[in-house]
Write a structure and sequence with these properties.
The protein is an alpha/beta fold. The protein is 40% helix and 14% strand. It folds into three domains: 13-76, Arc Repressor Mutant, subunit A (Orthogonal Bundle); 104-131 and 372-480, Aspartate Aminotransferase, domain 1; 141-368, Type I PLP-dependent aspartate aminotransferase-like (Major domain) (Aspartate Aminotransferase, domain 2, 3-Layer(aba) Sandwich), CATH 3.40.640.10. Helix 15 runs parallel beside helix 17 (457-480).
Length: 481
Amino acid sequence: MEIRIDKRRKIPLYRQIMNQIIKQMDEGLLLKGDRLPSERALAIESGVNRSTIVRAYDELYAQGFVERKSSSGTYVLGTTKESFSGHHHGPLFFMKDKRLTKDPYVKKLDELIKRDNPRLINVYTGELPFDLVPNISLPSFHWKEFLQEEVSALGYLELRQTIQNLMIKTYEYQPKEDEIMLTAGGQQSLVLLMQSLLKPGDVVAIEDPSFFNGMSLFKSMSIKVIKIPVDENGLCVEELEKVLQTESIQMVLTNPNFQNPTGSSMSLKRRKKLVEICRTFRIPIIEDDVFGQLSYDVPHALPLLKELAPETVIYIGSLSKILGKRMQLGWIDAPSLVLNEVIKLRDEYESELSIFPQVLATHALKDDTFLKQLADLRHQLKEKKDFLEEELNANLEMKLTCSFPDGGYYAWLTYEGRKLVREDWNLLLKHQMAVYPSFLNAENAQSCRINLARLTNSQTKMLVSRFKIICQLWETDSLND
């Protein structure tokens, strides 16, 4: 294997080594199962420090191009086409909220939804329905207007200032202008932060259940995941404190407001305790708040973790939940030291955020009608939540309990009868009901998430009626056992 280093180029040395190894994989010069030279041997041959080779191999391993065998060495896993992302960028901007292999139940759900049966009640999809997205009229633009807009490394200044104002109205919290970095959505924010702040072998604490549980990046980066339970008051901080007695944790990921999938919000007592613990152990917290702008009460009654501990907490926000899924824009609110590392990583992959969605989003958020439409959206979501709560309380007694959110649009239903297994949820498919069952993000099969934003009042009545039938069938199975 021949590696040529050009120290006159601005590309980091470890990246030059990575790129050449990946190229040799693509060209068939390195095949699956081939052993790479030892770090020491390649360092001598290339004329670089051994630490440079170590970093190059670490990155190749994190991105799924190579594997390590104890006391044996580093081996090629396959070409870039066989790696996780299928791109030279590795998983950086292609990671989705799903496992590497799609769950069989999800495949069944996809097939059910594709049939487009008029009887289908689809509360599985995690998006805001199109008819609830604010309808903003945009002014006409000239092409050169876009091209002349100045964009810094942090993103379009006017949009960052607009997000500042939105945060003030929602939380009475004002992030610093130079600590807001625009991204291509919440998922990209997470990936950038984890790849900037973590290394293979690090330990991350996540909520259980949580959509974080399905992130393939953990596996591709060889990150150890520790699950901390969630209840009606959010993350069980006492359990995290116990884990810290035996584990060295490098990061905590939490979704404290309208948690996905349970809809619960972390209590003030737990928020304060969490930041106190993480300060003591010097653990950064990533506060994922993509539903933050959909709080039913504005300003939100509870302070952000970021507000309680600005030096410890990295905040992630998103515009996709209020402007529609096609508007892939988010932001990171973090100390400049962190953002500088994130920018270096992003620039290394040459993935600068396009100016077009930034300018369009700025006009949408500054539209005279936007805040009223956003308030109307919050009101509609709360009405849907209240109606569902009334119907469940009136018709399902205690067979099916529900955790209702104070914002966003996810409700969490739990069956209180016998212990359920995955196969029990096939009943819902037979009754034309698409929900998000708990076993996709947790160890048990007792609960499910529903997207109440997608329900009309008549559909809510049908949903509750079908759940009543299904609960009776589950109960009958229990008696037969």
